[in-house]
From TrEMBL:
UniProt-recorded Gene Ontology molecular function terms: DNA binding; DNA-binding transcription factor activity
PROSITE patterns linked to this entry: HTH_LYSR
Pfam families: HTH_1, LysR_substrate
UniProt family annotation: Belongs to the LysR transcriptional regulatory family.
Cross-referenced InterPro entries: LTTR (IPR050176), LysR_HTH_N (IPR000847), LysR_subst-bd (IPR005119), WH-like_DNA-bd_sf (IPR036388), WH_DNA-bd_sf (IPR036390)
UniProt protein name: HTH-type transcriptional regulator GltC
Keywords (A to Z) from UniProt: DNA-binding, Transcription, Transcription regulation
Gene (UniProt): gltC_2
Ranges for domain HTH lysR-type: 2-59
Coiled-coil residue windows: none
Length: 290
C-alpha cells in the first residue's frame, strides 16, 4: 500500500506546478515536499515528476497517477466528512472560509459570542478571496460574494451587502459632486462588479488613486483621499465618514453560504451555519430579503 501523505504531497505538486507552491499550500517546508515526492517515486519505482529549474512537469506516468490519485483523494475526504458528521453533538473543529473584508470587519466581532454559545466547537476562520474546494476539505463552510458552483455543495443565500459612496467629513470637495475624485481598484479588478458600478458612478470624473483591497479603500477614504464605494457595514464603523447621495444606480453584493452536502447535518457544522444566518439577519447594514 502507498503512503497517503506521499500521494497528498504529489497531488499538490501536480496541481500547482512547483515544489515551493505546494509547500505553501500544504503549510510545510520545501524539503518536506521534495522528500515526500521522492518517497512516492521510490514506492512506485517510476519517475512521476520532471523537476525543472522553475517548475515541475508530470511525466506520462505521473499524469496517469495524478488522474487516479484524485479519486483516492475524494474517497479519503469522503471518509473524513462521514466521520465528522458522526461526531457527538456540538463538538469538533469547523473551518470557515470567507472574504477578508467579512472576516476582519464583521465575523471576528462575533467570535466571543459563538464561543460562549458553543464552547466545544473550535472555529477556524480563514480570510480568503479565492474559491476554496469544499470537496478537498479546504474548508467546511464557505461564505462567498459570488454564487458557488461546486456540484457537491449545498448553497444558501444569506443576504445582500449594500454599497454606498462615502467620503471623509473633511474631504475638500465633499459638497461639490462635480469635483469628486474617486478611489477605485486597479486594472486587475476591472471585471469585479463593484469596480464596474464605481466606474459608472464616477462617469468620467477623476480617479484619485487605485488600491487593490477594500480595507485600503477604507483607510484612504478616512484620510480624505477621495470618494470610495464601500460596503455599508464597513463604512458605518468609521465616525468620520459621510454617506454621499448620487444619481447612479444602487448596488449590492449577494452573500452566499456553501457547505459540502455530506456535512450539512453534522451538529457542529450546523451550529456554525445557524450562527452565520443569525448574525447576518440581525445586522441592519445587511439586507436579508429578496
Amino acid at each position: 500500500m502507498f503512503d497517503w501523505e506521499n500521494i497528498r504531497h504529489f497531488l499538490a505538486v501536480a496541481r500547482i506546478g512547483t515544489l515551493s507552491g505546494a509547500a505553501r499550500k500544504l503549510k510545510v517546508d520545501h524539503a518536506t515536499v521534495s522528500r515526500r515526492l521522492s518517497a512516492l517515486e521510490d514506492e512506485v519505482k517510476t519517475r512521476l515528476v520532471e523537476r525543472l529549474p522553475r517548475a515541475c512537469k508530470l511525466t506520462p506516468a505521473g499524469q496517469r497517477v495524478f488522474e487516479l490519485a484524485q479519486g483516492m483523494e475524494e474517497n479519503a475526504y469522503a471518509i473524513e466528512r462521514f466521520l465528522d458528521a458522526s461526531l457527538s453533538p456540538l463538538s469538533g473543529k469547523v473551518t470557515l472560509s470567507a472574504p477578508p473584508v467579512l472576516v476582519a470587519s464583521f465575523l471576528v466581532k462575533h467570535l466571543r459570542a459563538f464561543r460562549l454559545a458553543h464552547p466545544s466547537v473550535q472555529l477556524s476562520v480563514s480570510g480568503d478571496a479565492r474559491q476554496v474546494s469544499l470537496s478537498r476539505r479546504e474548508a467546511d463552510i464557505a461564505l462567498r460574494l459570488v454564487r458557488p458552483d461546486e456540484a457537491t455543495s449545498v448553497i444558501r443565500k444569506l443576504g445582500r451587502m449594500p454599497f454606498d459612496l462615502y467620503a471623509s467629513r473633511d474631504y475638500a470637495h465633499l459638497h461639490n459632486p462635480s469635483a469628486w475624485e474617486f478611489i477605485v481598484y486597479d486594472a486587475g479588478f476591472s471585471e469585479m462588479p463593484q469596480q464596474k458600478w464605481l466606474m459608472s458612478v464616477a462617469n468620467g470624473r477623476p480617479i484619485a488613486c487605485e488600491i487593490s483591497d477594500i480595507t485600503g479603500h477604507l483607510a484612504a477614504t478616512q484620510a480624505g483621499a477621495g470618494v470610495a464605494g464601500l460596503p455599508r457595514f464597513l463604512a458605518q464603523t468609521s465616525a468620520n465618514l459621510q454617506r454621499l447621495p448620487h444619481d447612479g444606480e444602487s448596488f449590492s453584493r449577494d452573500i452566499w453560504m456553501a457547505v459540502h452536502r455530506d456535512l450539512r447535518r453534522s451538529p457542529h457544522v450546523r451550529a456554525v451555519m445557524d450562527f452565520l444566518l443569525k448574525i447576518v439577519a440581525e445586522n441592519p447594514d445587511f439586507m436579508t430579503g429578496g
